Amino acid sequence: MEKITITIDGKTVEAIKDQPVLMAAKENGIDIPALCHHPELENSGGSCRVCLVEAIQGGRSRIVTSCNYPVRKGLEIRTDTEQVRNIRKGVIELLLCRVPDSEVIQNLAAKYGIKEPRFFTDEGESDRNKCIACSLCTQVCEDVVGVSAISMQNRGRDKAPGTPYHKDSSVCIGCGACAYACPTNAISMKDEKGVRKIWGKKFKMVACSVCGKPYIPEAQVNWIVRTTGKERSFFDKCPDHR
Amino acid sequence: MAGQVRKKVDTKQIDKIIKSYDKSEESLLAILQDFQRSFQYVPEEGMKRLSKYMGVPESKIYAMGTFYKALSLTPRGRHTCKVCMGTACHLKGAGQILETIERELKVKRNSTTEDQRFTVESVNCVGACAMAPVVVVDEDYSGHVRQSKVMDILDKYK
Amino acid sequence: MKAITSFEQLEGYREKIKASQKKDLPSVLICFGTGCQANGAVAVADAFQEEIVKKGLKVGVNIGLKTTGCHGYCENGPLVVLRPKDVLYLKVKPKDVPEIVEKSLQNDTIVERLIYKDVNTKETIAAYHEIPFYKYQKRIALRNIGNVDPKSIDDYILSDGYKGLAKALTMKPDDIIAEVEKSGLRGRGGGGFPAGTKWRSCRAVDSDVRYVMCNGDEGDPGAFMDRSIMEGDPHSVIEGMIIGGYAVGAKQGYIYVRDEYPLAVKNLQAALADARAFGFLGKSVLGTGFDFDIKISRGGGAFVCGESSALMRSLEGKVGEPRAKYIRSVEKGLYDKPSVLNNVETWGNIPVIMQNGAEWYASFGTKGSKGTKVFSLVGKVNNTGLVEVPMGITVRELVEKIGGGILGGKKFKAVQTGGPSGGCIPEAESDLPVDFDSLTAAGSMMGSGGIIVMDENTCMVDVAKYFIGFLVEESCGKCTPCRDGLPRMHKILSDITEGNGKEGDIATLEELCDVLTYAALCGLGSSAANPVHSTIRYFREEYEAHIRDKKCPAGVCKSLITYSIDASKCTGCTLCSKKCPQGCITGERKQAHVIDKSKCIKCGVCKDVCNFDAVRIE
Predict the structure, then answer these.
(1) What ranges make up the beta strands (E) of C338-402?
(2) Counting beta carbons within 10 angstroms of the beta carbon of residue C568, is it exposed (0 to 12), middle (13 to 18) or buried (19 or more)?
(3) CA gap C540, C305 in Å, rounded
(4) A67 φ/ψ angles, rounded to the nearest 5 degrees
């Protein structure tokens, strides 16, 4: 890991070569709003366009997404110019049009002085709820969990994650990683009476032998046992009582 | 599709198409297009078998099916009537041609007539701009189409 | 066919087929482009075949007969060219064939009614190259189209085909790249990036695998340059790619063709099979030890797949979404390997640059844009079709000289270039030279070469709405500005054209334009605002007329116009009244008719059927 210095908002900071500017900024206490990026997911980012900054390199200035713009020698970043603020505000306003019910987006919009979007909203439009189509859920499902139960479907405004044919997935293990990864809490996951419901499918859960609380779907246990060779008995107890 | 009798899909035909290509992800789109040509749509059974054969998650194949416009997940009509909406055609009245077809066939664009005779689509430029406006029925191109004559063209297809 | 394994063998073969050609044999060339086929070229070809036999003559002995790619003058198809005199017949019907055979093939006379007649001067011209549409052209990328039978590799070889490849294979890869750099060839797909520089960057990356690709996903509505080349001269693209593959060090090439172009796929497939059989593709090309092959991939009907990273994802068998990362495809492209992607026309230029040299190529065009460019000249212009001209020709020359002026003597208003990523250039600016840099400076862009001519009856707000509507449907949906911004822009534009525009709409549109331009993920999104930007820039008053006066000056926007019948012109023929789907046109025979405006749906049928120009739009 090569350490180099770059400038962010006039401050000289140390950063690792090729790491995303967003991370370098965060490590140095400079906050840039971002939704669709997850440090553990290599292919995440670049979709919501909220983390825009101005990057100046080799005398050339352009607006880039900081979540996937690599740190390079001599890079100068401006996170809060008038232009950056205006464009970012425009993007956030569009997100608010898409998901007017999302608290996450409402709060972000409020920070940028947007009360009501000036354009029509997609309220009540299909069943996409609070989804901003950032694809973090499908990436987690593919790259981390490894089952690819869901994918980003359709195109344009209708882009949304889902299971094939909107039917119960034959490969979903009910792990809920997608719901945890979602930046706008758009994926509904309910655990009730020992049953988890997610993506329309019900999963029976295994209860902890100590506290009796159902804590993990059976399908997920089977998956882990099968793919990692872990002992099944390991899952008798929940993480709190292991 | 409600009330519509869907013919049972010939799985032999599905497998024949799949096996006529290299066993590689590169072939996915071509296979889906061949399904489309063979069955007038991409059947669920086809995607399932393709997923299994190639070892590619069904969700990914389904995503392709919903992304590419050349693919349709519901059966199309016996004939496909494409009204070109390229710029040249637009300027020369393609919109009115399409409206005429919609009105006469009682169908909305990008859907199929009740009798399954036509699927009417608006398409983005078929590259025959010098003959604008253009209507393509199945593989037959008609150029310099006039609003008052377009139904004569369609009448030939039963 | 036994594969050719040396340069000498190739030349020997060329000489052999040259010798077998009968010089000055009266020949018929029938255009088999998509346009001419649609107009009935197949029946015309059959009629020639039949008539020649009927006359007791033999094809190839007494009379030559072949089908060719698109001549570009599709408006007037089916086109028939007679050699050796280069006479062009337009709109030929099967019933004209016996007369042509007798008068022009067996004898040396011209069938007057089938030759070109200038709409303005009424002058008739028989010679192909004297017709204004062809006179000002310089055909380099289109050099063979219309002359060769695309299905015949012999025909291509006869036209010096694969000579450029043979020459390139004797050169060092770096020298080939230097030659391409020196030629000044810039990418013809729209970006205008120097081809040689791209090749050099790709070659410089350390990797055991590299790819070359051809972008044949010609998606710009109103453009069909690449279709015509793939259909009419597939070997030129293949030869260019083999040279490119050798120069950058690739062993595999891909051609990505739009699904909407079935004939292009067919002709390319046949050409690839022939090229393999002849030893131009496959193991040890021409016996040099260089292995190279090409695969065809059909697109799936997604405009965004013309964007380079989306195209590569689609080739890999995935959803064709652009890549968000800041990496160039010359470093990490297809399968994350160094890759060169050029468009069809760029590849088609390569063989002839190799053959004739960089200096020759650079002698055409302007300082910053060398060579020629193929344009599809369409819309409200008299001569529509495909033309190739030296860079630097002015918009006005294109429209007036080659295009023969505006249809129906109407007023020239603007041209639109660059498809949905481009913009409009008004008549007042039309002395602008057409090259990469001047078009960009004028707020449009070269794009792949679609030039759509607009007249006084074209509404610029409607044009902007049309392009944004197109992009709404084609947005892949990955990034916020494009996915959620374009539908909002479209709504504002729709409101304006429906008479619901309000003060401030123009400023709001401009704001949204900025969000698109600076925040969108890929080129499709960041250029999506151009059609709106440029129409506001040059035609602001037209927007204002819609918003303030609720009027569409061009008479296009349905909600702002009314249909009526000019009593002084109406002859009372009753045709409109019979055809009106609403039954809202009434009147006695031989009396002026009247439209009941309360029932009229403004479908335009009456205007279409009226033979006396009596239907008025206000």
Answers:
(1) 339-343, 372-379, 385-390
(2) exposed
(3) 33
(4) -70, -25
**pLDDT tens-place string over residues A159-173:** 999 999 999 999 999
Subunits close to A (at least 3 CB pairs below 8 A): B, C
CB contact under 8 A, A163 and B59: yes
Give the pLDDT confidence score for residue C434 in this predicted structure.
93
Q: Can you list the domains of chain A with their CATH numbers? A: 3-80 (3.10.20.740), 136-241 (no CATH)
Examine the pLDDT at A126 and tell me if it is beyond 80: no
Give, to the nearest 10 degrees, the angle between helix A103-111 and helix A82-98: 150
Contact of B22 with chain C, judged by CB distance below 8 Å, is answered with no
CA distance A129 to chain C (A): 15
The domain tally of chain C equals 5
**Architecture of the domain delimited by B79-155:** 3-Layer(aba) Sandwich (3.40)
Q: Which two tokens stand for residue B141?
A: 């191109």
Sign of the dihedral defined by the CA atoms of residues A45, A47, A51, A57, in that order? positive
> HSE (CB half, 13 Å, CA atoms) of C491?
12
Residue B140 contacts C, CB cutoff 8 Å: yes
CATH classification of the domain holding C203 = 3.40.50.11540
Q: Is B126 on the interface with C (CB under 8 A)?
A: yes
Residue C320's identity, in one-letter code, is G
Under 8 Å CB pairs connecting chains A and C tally to 99
Whether A93 and A118 have beta carbons less than 8 Å apart is answered as yes
Query: Are β-strands C252-257 and C211-216 bridged in parallel, bridged antiparallel, or unpaired?
Result: parallel
Q: What is the DSSP letter of C76?
A: G
State the pLDDT confidence band at C34, using cuts at 50, 70 and 90: confident
Confidence of residue B2 (pLDDT cuts 50, 70, 90): very low
- Scanning the structure block, which residue is given the tokens 């706008």? A184
Strand locations in B26-114 (E): 79-84, 111-112
Q: ipTM score of the complex?
A: 0.95
The C252-257 sheet, strands edge to edge = C293-298, C252-257, C211-216, C339-343
Of C378, C387, C405, C46, the C-alpha closest to B134 is C378
Q: How far apart are CA C378 and CA C162, in angstroms?
A: 33
How many other CB atoms sit within 10 Å of the CB of residue A53? 25
List chain C residues with CB under 8 Å of B27: 317
For residues C375 and C412, give the distance between their C-alpha atoms in angstroms, rounded to a whole number.
Answer: 18
Instruction: Tell me how crowded residue B51 is: count the other CB atoms within 10 A of its CB.
Output: 18
Segments forming the whole domain that contains residue C572: 562-617
Return the residue matching tokens 């002359």.
Answer: C147
Helix (H) or strand (E) holding C468: helix C460-474
B69 with C223: Cβ contact below 8 A? no
B/e letters for C215-254, b = 16+ CB within 10 Å, e = fewer, are bbbbbbbbbbbbbbbbbbbbbbbbbbbbbbbbbbbbebbb
Cβ proximity of C43 and C67 under 8 Å: no
3-state secondary structure of A6: strand
Query: If you write DSSP's letter for every residue of C186-222 in order, what string do you get?
Result: B-TTTT--BHHHHHHHHHHS--S--EEEEEE---STT
Are both C26 and C163 inside the same structural domain? no
List CB contacts of C534: < 8 A, sequence separation 6 or more: C422, C423, C424, C425, C443, C444
**Interface membership of B90 toward C (CB under 8 Å):** yes
How far off is chain C from A168, nearest CA to CA, in Å? 22
Q: How far apart are CA C52 and CA C105, in angstroms?
A: 10
Question: Is there a contact between C515 and A94 if contact means CB atoms under 8 Å apart?
Answer: yes
Closest CA to A240 of A219, A215, A206, A203: A215
